[in-house]
Amino acid sequence: MTAGAGSTDTAQILLVEDNPGDVRLTKEAFKQGRIENDLHVVSDGTEALDFLAQQNEYSDAPRPDLILLDLNLPRTDGEEVLLELKADPQLRSIPVIVLTSSRAEEDIARSYELHANAYLTKPVDPDEFIETVRAFEEFWFSVVRLPPEVEQQ
Question: 83 vs 43, 47, 115, 153, CA distance in Å?
């Protein structure tokens, strides 16, 4: 799928988030948005890597058009997910938006060093959180043209 301005396809979004409250707020924000999307949720970095590799319980998982990635995850953390994702020629073109509670300058710098496409800090207020996700969705799926899937060699 090539999402972007004028696209009518359903966007495939992978949310990598271990906080059930943030998952619920993200789902609510997407539900309120005007963009058709399929939101897939995994709760840790190991599951995210399985989803992206289409292995174990995720053998039929779609290739995401966009990944929302928390940094503070159990098992495999967000930095490691970003490192492995961007090292894979088949997956590195998928935009990754770090969506985390961390405001630490070193986390921001490290995320961009690992080729994150954007870094968003989760607002504490639920309404602000929903508005942040909606604004992100509007930008990434109405304004930006996303890359096509890389063909397998």
Answer: 18, 15, 8, 21
Token pair, residue 47, equals 């599951």
CA pair distance 120, 86, nearest whole angstrom: 19
Closest to 131 measured CA to CA, from 32, 38, 65: 32
Q: How far apart are CA 18 and CA 78, in angstroms?
A: 11
pTM (predicted TM-score): 0.86
Report which residue type is found at 68. L
Give the C-alpha separation, 62 to 75, whole Å.
23
**Whether residue 63 has pLDDT greater than 80:** yes
Asked whether the beta carbons of 93 and 147 are under 8 A apart, the reply is yes
SS3 at position 132: helix
Residue 57, burial from CB neighbour count under 10 angstroms (0-12, 13-18, 19+): exposed
Higher pLDDT, residue 18 or 137: 18
Of 61, 112, 107, which is closest to residue 86 (Cα–Cα)?
A: 112
